[in-house]
Amino acid sequence: MTARRNRPQGFSTRAIHLGYDPAEHDGALTPPIYMTSTFAFETAEAGSEMFRGERAGYIYGRTRNPTQTILEERMASLEGGEAAMTAGSGMAAISSVMLTILNPGDEVIVDHTIYGNTFAYFTQALTRFGVIVHLADFTRPETVAELVGENTRAVFFETPANPNLRVIDIAEIARIAGRAGAVVIVDNTFATPALQRPLEFGADVVVHSATKYLGGHGDLLGGIVVGTADMIKQVRTTGLRWMTGATLSPFNCFLLLRGLKTLELRLERHSASAMAVARLLEDHGKVASISYPGLESFPQFDLARRQMSAPGGLIAFELDGGMDMGMAFMNKLSLVTRAVSLGDTETLIQHPASMTHATYGTEERARHGIGDGLLRLSVGLENVDDILDDLDQALNAL
């Protein structure tokens, strides 16, 4: 059998090997952690050239570090971008991009259903500095088209969206925004490049809370930005180096490199277990509604299948009896952990209206599909029968 030597390397192969040769590091199989804040210059002239951008090299840890470089090269490849940049958190990644590309008077169009702190950042923080923020229902692209104008600098959305898993047509939004030359920014935290690559559908920039699935173990905070080499250079110089200083530590880069090695395998397991959980919830008489991209009852099932290779590990659902019943249900769980965040090995459940999305007002939540009784479940890597047993006993105990 002839070896297929000309085909591109697979996702997990790149996640494990790209950008690192053990032979160049005394044979160390795992990339070393460069725990240094500054770097020595071979000569004074070399240092001056680096500061002027005329020579490649490392200057100071706030801008770049060799451990970060390996992670950035791997994330750029996995997302299909030219370059990537790490940041101290997902919010730092978003802020670094926005503070780079926006000026007073610029307009941004944002999907109305996003992570609560991101929503507050756009509607309460950026507006203080003269940025005009418009909210739209991105599942209805015509509402975005109505708002796009000559001052539109960027559009921002999540897909699937936090917390109710609405799926947005990336290609259609990119087409609409492209008419105005707006930068299309997609938060790909829920899907990760293992399941969805927004740049392939026309997005310009991808951001992540690397805290979630990319890390995968609930032991770090981090953010990622992926885009063109020119965009990443701008964001690193302006948004990261000057505006936020939100550098990701070399140790957290090391932990993220570890997480990437199992990302594809973990997402396969998260998705398969979530599918089984979704079937249980859909068939249970005490569940009033469920939102999961893998179910045929999901309103955007066909779009989700076109954009995502698997439906992911997150489920949103509401019980008969609303918020009070949801709280009672959460308190009856024993294996499933009551905690915010997602993408960990542990199965986590939380109540968005009182937790991650409390920054939305009551009327805003109602308008944007975040019901007071909505629960968000992040299905972990425990044996799926144990997850199912815990959920079933809690439902039957109500």
UniProtKB/TrEMBL annotation:
<dbReference type="GO" id="GO:0018826">
    <property type="term" value="F:methionine gamma-lyase activity"/>
</dbReference>
<dbReference type="GO" id="GO:0030170">
    <property type="term" value="F:pyridoxal phosphate binding"/>
</dbReference>
<dbReference type="GO" id="GO:0005737">
    <property type="term" value="C:cytoplasm"/>
</dbReference>
<comment type="similarity">
    <text>Belongs to the trans-sulfuration enzymes family. L-methionine gamma-lyase subfamily.</text>
</comment>
<dbReference type="GO" id="GO:0009086">
    <property type="term" value="P:methionine biosynthetic process"/>
</dbReference>
<dbReference type="InterPro" id="IPR015421">
    <property type="entry name" value="PyrdxlP-dep_Trfase_major"/>
</dbReference>
<dbReference type="InterPro" id="IPR054542">
    <property type="entry name" value="Cys_met_metab_PP"/>
</dbReference>
<feature type="modified residue" description="N6-(pyridoxal phosphate)lysine">
    <location>
        <position position="212"/>
    </location>
</feature>
<dbReference type="InterPro" id="IPR015422">
    <property type="entry name" value="PyrdxlP-dep_Trfase_small"/>
</dbReference>
<dbReference type="InterPro" id="IPR015424">
    <property type="entry name" value="PyrdxlP-dep_Trfase"/>
</dbReference>
<keyword id="KW-0456">Lyase</keyword>
<dbReference type="Pfam" id="PF01053">
    <property type="entry name" value="Cys_Met_Meta_PP"/>
</dbReference>
<keyword id="KW-0663">Pyridoxal phosphate</keyword>
<dbReference type="GO" id="GO:0019346">
    <property type="term" value="P:transsulfuration"/>
</dbReference>
<protein>
    <recommendedName>
        <fullName>L-methionine gamma-lyase</fullName>
        <ecNumber>4.4.1.11</ecNumber>
    </recommendedName>
</protein>
<dbReference type="InterPro" id="IPR006237">
    <property type="entry name" value="L-Met_gamma_lys"/>
</dbReference>
<dbReference type="InterPro" id="IPR000277">
    <property type="entry name" value="Cys/Met-Metab_PyrdxlP-dep_enz"/>
</dbReference>
